[in-house]
Amino acid sequence: MGVLRRQSPKVTEDLRGKLEEGELEEVEAFIKSREEASNLEARAMALRLPEVVANFLSMLDTAAEQEKELLMNHAKIAVTDLRRAINRHSA
């Protein structure tokens, strides 16, 4: 009955009406179709998982590269400032 709980109130009401009228085959067919759709959705998500992981790793690589560039720029600025200070002190 978990499939019934996930439906809109109207669909649930229609299905309960069919159950009360003894139309079990229609209710069983509906439940089976929803379970199959749910299984297909789960399979589709599983197939996309490697793509999602690859995109995430790519984002991490990009962030790491940007962080590395930022640190290098800070290091260059620090070295330049240090050279200026040494030159000022030497002069």
Structure explained in plain terms:
This protein has 91 residues and is mainly α. It has one domain. 91% of the residues lie in helices and 0% in strands. It has three helices and no strands. It has helices at residues 2-5, 9-20, 24-90. The longest helix is centred in the middle third of the chain and has 67 residues, at 24-90. It is rod-shaped. It starts with a helix and ends with a helix. 0% of the residues are buried.
Quick recap:
It contains three helices and no strands. It is mainly alpha-helical.
Number of helical segments with 4 or more residues: 3
Give the termini separation. Answer: 87 Å
- Average predicted confidence as pLDDT: 85
Categorize the overall geometry: rod-shaped
Fraction of residues in H or I helices: over 70%
Radius of gyration: 31 Å
> In percent, how much strand structure appears in the residues?
under 5%
Counting structural domains, the number is: 1
In terms of per-residue confidence, which ranges show pLDDT below 50 for 5 or more consecutive residues? none
Q: Class by helix and strand content?
A: mainly alpha
Number of strands: 0
Q: Give the helices and strands as they follow along the chain.
A: HHH
Largest sheet: none
